[in-house]
UniProtKB/TrEMBL annotation:
Keywords: Kinase, Nucleotide-binding, Transferase. Its EC number is 2.7.4.3. Monomer. Residues 159-194 form the Adenylate kinase active site lid domain. Pfam families: ADK, ADK_lid. It catalyses: AMP + ATP = 2 ADP. HAMAP family: Adenylate_kinase_Adk. It comes from the Eukaryota. This is adenylate kinase. Belongs to the adenylate kinase family. It is an enzyme of class 2 (transferase). Catalyzes the reversible transfer of the terminal phosphate group between ATP and AMP. Plays an important role in cellular energy homeostasis and in adenine nucleotide metabolism. One of its GO terms (molecular function) is ATP binding.
Length: 245
């Protein structure tokens, strides 16, 4: 493995090598952090995770993407996961934890990781903790993106999109000049299937039922930080940095 990657390094532009080297030197002094982001859909996890990732030199582990990557790469765990998916079954918790276990051994995860979308249940949280314990580490912080359902509903069901350009509007926070119409082209705006009240309600129900107990589980371990996720993104970033500093 080493020889092939060394050969390809010669082909990497010097600027890229220097940038990566500087990044690693800057990262060397950062404390290790293993973080879990928990929050309902629309609570802003996706906005904050790239900021946290860059600030603390962590790798971002989105379990859905990792599963797809493992399946595509035909890793032993990926092959097992594909068998389950082909049968229309859910991929087992042990498999997902195994894939996380493999991922966090990569150099990009040396300083720690951000887990997003996992664990969704207390059993998953326990399995994750057992796996980390074997490596002699633990979850440092669980960032709880706490937000009222009513605010989320307003946030999400108010989103409208111009399909061909991807321009987004919000009926309350960033309305188009003419309701339901794109400012630039005058074409009709649409709402994503996931952004309707009915879909949101079922996703929120699942979140409260399955995932809220995960927050309680980590509260008992004293690692949960509650964020005011209804605030504007910049203010949430400030809160996150305070919690993690």
């Amino acid at each position: 493995m080493a020889s092939s990657s060394a050969a390809t390094l010669e082909d990497v532009p010097s600027m890229d090598l220097m940038t990566e080297l500087l990044r690693r030197m800057k990262c060397a002094s950062k404390p290790d952090k293993r973080l879990i982001l928990i929050g309902p859909p629309g609570s802003g996890k996706g906005t904050q995770s790239p900021i946290i990732k860059d600030e603390f030199c962590l790798c971002h582990l989105a379990t859905g993407d990792m599963l797809r990557a493992a399946v595509a790469a035909k890793t032993p765990l990926g092959v097992k996961a594909k068998e389950a998916m082909d049968k229309g079954q859910l991929v087992s918790d042990d498999l997902v934890v195994g894939i996380i276990d493999e991922a966090i051994k990569k150099p990009s995860c040396q300083k720690g990781f951000i887990l997003d979308g996992f664990p969704r249940t207390v059993v998953q949280a326990q399995k994750l903790d057992e796996m980390l314990e074997k490596q002699g580490v633990k979850v440092d912080k669980v960032l709880n993106f706490a937000i009222d359902d009513a605010i989320l509903e307003e946030r999400i069901t108010g989103r409208w999109i111009h399909p061909s350009s991807g321009r987004t509007y919000h009926t309350k926070f960033a309305p188009p000049k003419t309701p339901g119409v794109d400012d630039v082209t005058g074409e009709h705006l649409i709402q994503r299937k996931d952004d309707t009240a009915a879909v949101l309600k079922s996703r929120l129900d699942a979140f409260h039922k399955q995932t809220e107990p995960v927050i309680s589980y980590y509260k008992q371990k004293g690692v949960v930080a509650d964020l005011h996720a209804e605030k504007p993104p910049k203010e949430v970033t400030v809160e996150v940095e305070k919690v993690l500093s």
